[in-house]
Amino acid sequence: MDLDIYLYKEELKMEIKVVGPGCKKCQVLYHQVLRAEEDLKRNDKVTKVEKYEDMMAYNILSTPALVINEKVMCSGRIASTDEIKKWILERE
Amino acid sequence: MQFIKSFFSFINDQFLKMKWLDDIVRWLFGDVIKIDKDSMFFESISFFVYDVIKIFILLSILIFIASYIQSYFSPERTRKILSKHKGIGANTIGALLGTVTPFCSCSSIPIFIGFTKAGLPLGVTFSFLISSPLVDLASVILLASIFNWKIAIAYVVVGLLIAIFGGSMISLFKMEKYVESFVMENRQSINENNEACDLSVMTKKDRVSYSFDQVKEIIHRVWLYVLIGVGIGAIIHGFIPQTFIENILGDKNPFSVIIATLLGIPMYADIFGTLPIAEALVFKGVNIGTVLAFMMAVTALSLPSLIMLKKVVKTKLLLTFVGIVTIGIILMGYLFNGFGYLFI
Questions:
Q1: CATH of the domain at A31
Q2: How large is the ipTM?
Q3: In this structure, is residue A73 part of a structural domain?
Q4: Cα–Cα distance measured from residue B272 to residue B277, given in angstroms and rounded to the nearest whole number
Q5: Which residue from A17, A92, B12, B178 has the highest number of Cβ atoms inside 10 Å of its Cβ?
Q6: Which domain holds residue A19?
Q7: Mutation site for A-interface testing, chosen from B197, B202, B215, B313 by largest number of A Cβ within 10 Å
């Protein structure tokens, strides 16, 4: 039973990426995402994309950017936790 | 006419230069705390306290206004506008948009990649990247506060000219092959896919809160540089003998502009941190061209930004970029020293 729930959750997991070279703003955004995850009691895969070669795939001009399941939700500013929560629920 | 003139000089003195604040600070240290008014320490401490308070008040107001204006110019929009122009016109618009497009310094590489990938000429991108840290809306008004409007406007014009000239040179030298290959792959016009939070679709309320966030963030980022800058300014103001500074940076030394420029290049500071140093240097009799060369060298070129740029361009282009900007700044410095009497 426990394993079932685990598998079910694993399938629903989204990939959230914080894209940016790792400056202060990027770190703040990363923590906002973690807070949103905590509030929503979710356990999505949150990663950082810090290499310029990898960032290019998302066609963004300003960092930090927030990418959910490979779609750029926002770039150039730090989104609020509420916005991030909204986007996570939207993209689900 | 006389009335209008004195009205404006009143506004300028009290709001921009904040003479009332200077008076209060001097009264506080001289008459209340009773520090000897002729001592060097009195000069230093008054300059420090007055300048710190003045810069932070002006900075908060100016960043707010500048951010509000900037919220209409997202990098995406700038790229779109630039892709419609060619030649020196594109360099000029690139330099102009550089002054109003907001981005933090760590975004300069994504912007470089994004502009280049979209097929914009390399020179136009460089015009944008040179003018962006050099000419900043808020800093121009601060310059007017510390010096005067003529100098502030001259600074803007010269900064833009250096950006246009630098970018045009890089176009002329056909440096495209010196950009790292991963940037040059698949260059094409990019169709914008508008994001959920694109700056240009913000409501008025969004712009106000964006501007507040910018004030908080920029002050948070620069306060230390401002304190250090004012600190150095205060030491120059009070403790370093005038003759010493005059010998190195004064008009007796024909290399003063070159020394000031080379001194400024490796330094990394925000333009807001360099202004108080410039203020103190001018007070000590250093020529305006020399001081502006120093400021421009500090803000336009810095070791950290060059190291970042190195990740996307090859050494030859990097050196060309540094060389052109350095020459531009030095020329500007000597020109200002030559015609400086027009501005003061």
A1: 3.40.30.10
A2: 0.73
A3: yes
A4: 10
A5: A17
A6: 14-91
A7: B197
